[in-house]
Structure formats: structure tokens, C-alpha cells
Amino acid sequence: MYAVVEIKGKQYKAQEGKYMLVDLHAEHAEGTKLEFPVFLLSDGEGKVSVGKPHVEGAKVTVKVMESLKDKKIRVFKYKRRKGYRKTMGHRQNYTKLLVEKVSS
């Protein structure tokens, strides 16, 4: 069984026993259990439920595993013929979640 869940304005596919990388949830410590009630789609035993806009009575229970960073992305910009060059970097922060239960 899987579900499409909305977390902080983004959509993620949640499947029981699998991990999800979502944008940083710094306010929650490791080991904290969270529930996300906003389902957009649910699929279980061949029955697909599409929400209009959300599936009623459905929720996903997850456990916060750890906070981590993605690899560094380099951004380079320059102006031609002027000698202007600038290099910037960015590392995205993520929270790793373990999907414990998907109930519809």
C-alpha cells in the first residue's frame, strides 16, 4: 500500500517500511513520531482513492530518523569581457523519515 502525501507544500510517495527524504523538519528531534493527515492519493489492495482535494480519514505515521545534507551544488555566474566571476555553493538540508504506517 502506498499514498501520495503533502508535506510542507510538496508531494511525496509514502510506502510502509520505506524511507523518505523531505525538506528539513528542524523543529522535530530524532525518534519523534509524526502524523500527516493530508492525502492526495491512496492505493491499497488494488483500490485507488483519489482525494478531492484530500482523501478523508487517511493518515501516514512516520518516525524522524535523522537530519542530513545533500551533496554540494556549485553555481557559477560571470559577465563576459568584464572579468566578473562569482562562484557560490549550496547544500540542501533534508530530514530522513521512516514510514511506519499508511492507513486509509
TrEMBL record:
Keyword Ribosomal protein included in the entry's annotation: yes
GO BP annotation list: translation
Signal peptide as annotated in the record: none
Entry GO MF terms: rRNA binding; structural constituent of ribosome
Transport in keyword set: no
Pfam families xrefs: Ribosomal_L21p
Domain of life: Bacteria
Cross-referenced PROSITE patterns: RIBOSOMAL_L21 (PS01169)
Keyword terms, alphabetized: Ribonucleoprotein, Ribosomal protein, RNA-binding, rRNA-binding
Matches recorded under InterPro entries: bL21-like, bL21-like_sf, Ribosomal_bL21, Ribosomal_bL21_CS
GO CC list: cytoplasm; ribonucleoprotein complex; ribosome
NCBIfam families from the UniProt entry: L21
Function: This protein binds to 23S rRNA in the presence of protein L20.
Family classification: Belongs to the bacterial ribosomal protein bL21 family.
Record note on quaternary structure: Part of the 50S ribosomal subunit. Contacts protein L20.
Protein name stated in the entry: Large ribosomal subunit protein bL21
